[in-house]
UniProtKB/TrEMBL annotation:
Polar residues biased stretches: 1-25, 330-340
Species the sequence originates in: Euplotes crassus
Region described as Disordered: spans on this chain: 1-33, 326-369
Protein name: TRAF-type domain-containing protein
Origin superkingdom: Eukaryota
Signal peptide, first to last residue: none
Amino acid sequence: MISKPPRQQTVSLKAVRYSSTPQSESTDDTYSGPENVEDYCKTHGTKYCLDKQDNCLSLFSRIFIENATQNQERVKAIFTSNDKGIMNVIQMLKCNLCHDILQASSIVCDSCKLCYCVECQENYVIETNSNCLNECSGEFSDLHDENQKFLLKCLKFKCENAQKGCESSFKTLKDLKKHEERCDFSFRTCQYCYKKKIMKKNLQNHLVSNCKIARKCQNFPKCAYIGTRDQVETHQEDDCAFTEIYCTTCLKTILRRDKDTHSCIETLRTLLCEKQNFLDKKTSKLSKITEENSKLRIMLENMKKTLLEKCEYEGKLKREIKRVTKESMKLTSPKKSCSKGSDLVTKRQRTVDQASPSRLKRTTRGRNC
Ligand SMILES: [Zn+2]
Ligand SMILES: [Zn+2]
Ligand SMILES: [Zn+2]
Ligand SMILES: [Zn+2]
Ligand SMILES: [Zn+2]
Ligand SMILES: [Zn+2]
Ligand SMILES: [Zn+2]
């Protein structure tokens, strides 16, 4: 049995306290980021190690309780009732083969009580022809320790950049490592001006807008190339897919990326098609105007006809008025006292009217025009 060093016990308890109040007194200045070599396990050369060694402590300090309000009391009870301290509690959650936190579906050796991920144990059998690290007979059960199962469910690791704003957290070291390698909040050093501690998510902005050395391609943002002044000039001259080049055959300007697929005939055909389309549009516009014109002409024709009819009618009216005026004058004149005479006139008039309607028509037409 390993005796518990008092210093480890202190740190372990702090880790549990830290989890209940995430924004603790720790600040960016005191935070030991990935640059800190002390974070690395000297035995395994990685910072993702849950060994009971002093140099792996930063990982323990990042363990927190998910849904703290519900689970905190029970976790605290497990930790305080366990006389071996947090380090040994964490060992209880470890796979003895991959040394990562056990996966949800894991197994425990019935004889020696060592725990393994199912996958790790299966691989171990294939590689060594043995079932267990202690070469037990090979009877395994699902995890059945309730405290162990509970802790596996609610303990998680915060990203190492939690203090800088990253809110990601993970159950296994494998996932934690995968995330931290490309966490947006991790620090990077500019490869051009060597400015340090630029957050990964701000690095592109630094290179594009703030770096004193780095230059961007003139075709930014279509082209994302960044380099020194010389590199960018060479890139634009020789490589940039978005630089415009001149086709000496069809005399058109094309993008360099289209150089291999560019066909002069195709380009000319497209140009011709564009012109044809333009022409077609104009033609259809013209035919529309012509159509409108003919409509207007018909309308004009109709109006002319109506006018003629009106004129004709007016002429008839005028003649009628004249005739009536004449007759009324005859009637009102002093000679008209002879009623016989007047009868005669009326009779003659009627005969004339009946005899030659064509003559009347002819005269009317002549007058109307
Ligand atoms: Zn280690
Ligand atoms: Zn494993
Ligand atoms: Zn065993
Ligand atoms: Zn992160
Ligand atoms: Zn820079
Ligand atoms: Zn470019
Ligand atoms: Zn061409």
